[in-house]
Amino acid sequence: MDAIDRRIIATLQRDGRMSMTDLANAVGLSPTPCARRVARLEGDHVIRGYTARIDQKALGLPVSVFIWVELETQSKEAIDTFERAIRGFDRVMECHLMTGSRDILMRVVAADLADFDRFLEERLMRVPGIRSVRSSFALRSMVERAALPTM
User: Fold this and answer.
1) Are the CB atoms for 39 and 7 separated by under 8 Å?
2) In the chain, at which residue ranges do the beta strands (DSSP E only) sit?
3) Which contiguous run of DSSP H or E holds residue 144?
4) What confidence score (pLDDT) does residue 61 get?
5) What region holds the HTH asnC-type domain (predicted)?
6) What DSSP letter does each residue of 3-41 carry, written as one string?
7) What are the residue ranges spanned by the domains of the chain?
8) Please, are residues 91 and 110 in contact by the beta-carbon 8 Å criterion?
9) How far is CA 99 from CA 70, 71, 82, 102, 124, in A?
10) The whole model's pTM is what?
C-alpha cells in the first residue's frame, strides 16, 4: 500500500459516495487507474464495504450500554458458542474478546432502560456459559470516529 492508496482510503472514509471521477481528482489520478486501485483495495478486503452512518438517537435508540461479560470457562468452544449467539442480536453494535479478568466487552444500543432490561433478560442472559454480566451506561459520547488514521 502506497501513499496514493492511503489518500484514496482517507478520501473514501470522508465521503464513500463520491464518484470515481471526483475521487480520482481528489487523489491526483485519472479515473481508470483510480478505479483499478479501488477495485484492488476492495479485492484485498482493505475496503470492506460502504455504509451510511446513522444517528442512533434518530432511530429511537439513544441509550448506549457497555457490558462486561465473564464466561464460566474460556475454552475455544465456550467462546465460539457465545460468539454464535450474540451475532444474532442486532442490538449488539460491537463485541470484543478481551484480556484480563472479564472476557468480553460489548456495546449495545437500547431505546430506554426497560428496553435494555428486556434485552438482558430475554436475549443475553439466555446465552449458555455466562458467569457474570456487568453493565455501564454511557452518559454521552465524547469522541466517535468512523475513519481510521491512514498514517
Assistant:
1) no
2) 63-71, 92-97, 104-110, 130-137
3) none
4) 97
5) 1-62
6) HHHHHHHHHHHH-TT--HHHHHHHHT--HHHHHHHHHHH
7) 3-43, 63-137
8) yes
9) 11, 12, 16, 7, 21
10) 0.86
All three cell numbers of 26, joined, read 481528489
| 131 SS3 class | strand
Give tens-digit pLDDT for 35-68: 999 999 999 999 999 999 999 999 999 999 999 9
CA dihedral of 31, 32, 33, 37, whole degrees rounded to 10: 90
pLDDT at 102 (0 to 100): 85
CATH 3.40.50.12780 is right for the domain spanning 3-43 = no
> According to the model, what pLDDT value does residue 135 have?
97
The pLDDT of residue 100 is 84
Q: How many residues make up the chain in this entry?
A: 151
Burial (0-12, 13-18, 19+ Cβ within 10 Å), 108 = buried
Contact predicate 38/26, CB 8 Å = no
pLDDT at 87: 96
CATH class of 63-137: alpha beta
The mean predicted confidence, pLDDT, of the chain is 96
- Residues in the chain predicted with pLDDT less than 50, given as ranges, are none
